[in-house]
Amino acid sequence: TVGDTTGAAAGLASATSGVAAAAVGSAAAVLNSSADAVAGNSSTPHERSHEDEEVHKHMILVSKEVVQPIAMAFLLSLVVATLLEKAHISFLPESAVVICVGLVLGLSLKFMKHFPVALLHELNAPVVNMLLLPLIIFESGWSLRSYDFAAQFVYILFFAVVGTFIAMIVVGYLIYWTGPYHGITDMRTAFTFASLIAATDPVATLSTYSSLQVEPLLHILVFGESTVNDAVAIVVFDILNGDELFGPVDAQEEPGSSRALSAIWSGIAKKLLGSMAVGLAFGIGYTLILRIAHMKHSQSMEILFIVFSCYLTFSSAEMVDMSGIIAVLFCSILMGIYAKPHMSREGQGLASFFVKELAQMADMGIFLLVGMDFVITDSTSMHFSSWVILFLLIGRAAATFPMGFLVNSIKKVSAGRSNRTPMLLSCKHLFMMWHAGLRGGIALVLVLEMGDWVDVNNKPGTKQVLLNTTIVVIVVFLLVFGGSTQFALKSLGIQVGVEVDERYLYDRSLLNSMHAVFEKLDQYVMRPLLGAVEEDELEEYDTVGAIDSVVINRNKHRGHWFASGVSRIGSQAADSSEDDSGDDSETR
Prior knowledge:
By secondary structure, this protein is mainly alpha-helical. The chain has 27 helices and no strands. The protein has helices spanning 2-15, 18-39, 45-86, 94-110, 121-142, 146-151, 153-177, 179-182, 187-197, 203-212, 216-241, 258-293, 299-319, 324-338, 345-373, 379-418, 427-435, 441-448, 453-457, 462-482, 485-492, 504-507, 512-530, 543-552, 558-562, 566-579, 584-587. The longest helix has 42 residues, at 45-86. Mean pLDDT is 75; it is low at 1-41, 534-544 and 550-588.
């Protein structure tokens, strides 16, 4: 029910600015009639009948032009994606299917009389930023192979921080130098747009990696870079888009000046470290609450607690001018390690399942928005988009390959000191990391937040061109690179279908001193503080059986099911196992 509500809310908010006004008008009419009644302003039966009729018309309008098309779009996306998967069609990823459905939906809504599509962008940023992204990021950290992430964290920072900054500089200067050909001649505009469009968001690529079980080294580097570089993009964008260095209208500092560069680097360090601290603090707090409240005795309560924690973390981090994305990521990583032992076995399986499905629905919501926004692009945007796509490919190569060679050099030096064989990045790995440079929700959110100075420093309508260009880049990269991921992996001979132990990369890592610090911190601080259970004390559990055991009990009274305890489910499972002990294989 929560998943359906989240999806409906996302779709509803993303497509209805004009119709929402109609709904507000309905509510206002009801409130006005109520106020008149309280104030003693009686109305005739004919007038009340007319007001009721207006409210009814508004409800029908919302149902017809909002709820129905959004629900149909989600259902159609699910059906088409299922059919493509059944037919083993891999060149068209699920996210591309959702974009196509959103495109059709946007075209249909564009020609509706009561739906002003131009106002759709006003709701895009809050819906994506506050409703959809927290779920997606939380699921990534909750299900993350934490040992893999820790083993490659230093190398991830090279790609995510230094590499992203290189890509921003390359793309920014290329846009500025070619300004006479596409119209963007202002340096501040060029670098501000480069800062938001340089951050990667390979949702389709990572989905393919997970389904094919790509070797963990490549997988964790692509995932880690795409997550951490969001902080770099947000910091640089906030500085260039703000008025602190550049004034309210005209640029007073060049983006490449020493003052601007100093502010950018200090801002990156502040936002990255500060966001990590906020996320870890909230993660510790949530884990202590789970421990003290003994929420494992109510599977529903602990699952809902886990889900809604991401929104509190995200909003709190944004309130103190930190990155909600980074905060949610590190909060979910910590909870995935230390909070799970304080949950029931059924709750762990159900929480992972529930969070994953909600994140998938949030992904669908974002790409549905992108498809709907695509309908308002024009020829000017297409012309500039072709330039930007070329610049992004060059900038991605200028960042990925040098950083890969630098990381390999560091690994070789470390291996020489420890007499161990390093796990190096081959040219095939680096090509796939370049190939994974898709764009997504973060770029869309940031371009919507660009100030009015863009049209002042350039010509009117430039801000809309940049928005349309971002949407075109997201769609083209998703279709071309997201759709060709499986083909590229097979052509390059990248190992797939790999099932390795979670400590595979960690045990072979060369960062022994850093790992020793982490292990001491875990042994003497985190586990005593959070009361985590040792891994060998945790029993294996059957996720499918856990889901069945809870869902079956929904035929009981809702309140009784909602407060159901692990002891009751455990006893029912025991009774069931005794009754079916004669035929275990059939039960399985």
